[in-house]
Amino acid sequence: MVENTCSSDVKIKGPETVCGGNSNESDSNVSLQNWSDLGVHTYIKIAIIGLLFCWLFNHEILSLVGKWADPNWSHGILIPLFSLFFVNQHKREILYLKPSPSYLGLFLLICGIIFYPLNVVHFQYGYFGPLNMIATLGAIVLFLGGWSLLKYTWLPIGFLVFAVPLPQRFYVSVTLPMRLLAAEAAAAVMNLVNGLDATVNGVVIDVVYNGRQMEPPLNVAEACSGMRLLMAFLALGVAMAYLHYRPIWQRIVLLASTIPIAVFCNVMRVTITGFIHTFIHPKYSQGIYHDMLGLAMLPLAFGLYYFLAWFMSSLFVEETAAAASDVVIRKRNK
Questions:
Q1: pLDDT tens, 215-232?
Q2: 282, 216 in Cβ contact below 8 A?
Q3: Residue 149 sits in the same domain as residue 176
């Protein structure tokens, strides 16, 4: 039997119980349960800081939103919403925090503000602009809330990187090998069909079926590279690994699995497109039909991801849970 060692002057502080009356923490946060309990003055401060932040980085914000119109980066509009959801997951802990500003955050904030115009005028590297904006946001959180607040917000802030399109040069260098891989794999599968001969020339698949050349040839364009699915699925993998409680090694495996799963699903997409192009009609492998097939790969990707998660949860049982299941309670006769 465990005795209660707390005296009558127990104080309830957020998620923990503190015994004694000599705590240095403030009791003002005891009643905070929802974001609306923060008070008008807190929201006025947040609004002022937010307006100043948007004024400083207005060009980067507008440019970023404009790039989300590109189908390859259309998932970017969802990333800030996911970040807000992550923050809300730790609402209880954040509301009970006592802010302790960090001067390191102030130093990093000043560095971020100075670097922004320096990059625009001197370095002129566009990808640094939104990254510097995200880093400056983290510096603001560290400066105003300290390390205790950054503990619960570092991942939501870092998650915003998935909303930033990759530099065009890097994007092309990554997508080209993925297009070549998809073309080679799709042609290898198509050649298994009798009477069908698929030859790869770079990212173009020439298809001959029963001696008839299929026109036009099947072109694995940038939209078929799988980069769109890879980036969206990688962001989702980070989100799922963050939200689902499981051992750290399982989270790493799930996160790493997003890349081969996305590549496999894209190979399946190109292969199915090739069969549609050959056996049905080339028009059904283009335009809206092509986009619909890409969306159809998402359930396949999610299914493979959840199967892997289920497999690891079923195969590897936590030692504590296994030990608890082996405990036999015997009643001693008096």
A1: 888 888 766 666 777 887
A2: yes
A3: no
Q: Are 171 and 165 in contact (CB under 8 A)?
A: yes
Rounded distance between C-alpha atoms, residue 298 and residue 309, angstroms: 16
**Residue that has been written with the tokens 């959801």 in this structure:** 85
Residue 89's domain comprises 11-164
Query: Residue 53 has what pLDDT?
Result: 94
CA-to-CA distance for 146 and 144, rounded, in angstroms? 6
Same-domain check for residues 303 and 189: yes
Q: 């130093």: which residue's tokens? A: 107
- Extended strands (E) in the chain: 11-13, 16-18, 196-201, 204-209, 212-213, 218-219
Bridge partner residues of 12 (DSSP): 17
Stated pTM of the model: 0.72
State how far the Cα of 128 lies from the Cα of 167, in Å rounded to an integer.
10
Q: Which ranges of the chain have pLDDT less than 70?
A: 1-31, 222-226, 316-334
> What digits encode the pLDDT tens for the residues 138-152?
999 999 999 999 999
| pLDDT the model gives residue 222 | 66
Please give the tally of structural domains in the chain.
2
CA-to-CA distance for 309 and 151, rounded, in angstroms? 26
- Note whether 148 and 32 are same-domain residues: yes
Q: Same domain, yes or no, for 157 and 188?
A: no
In a domain, 183, yes or no: yes
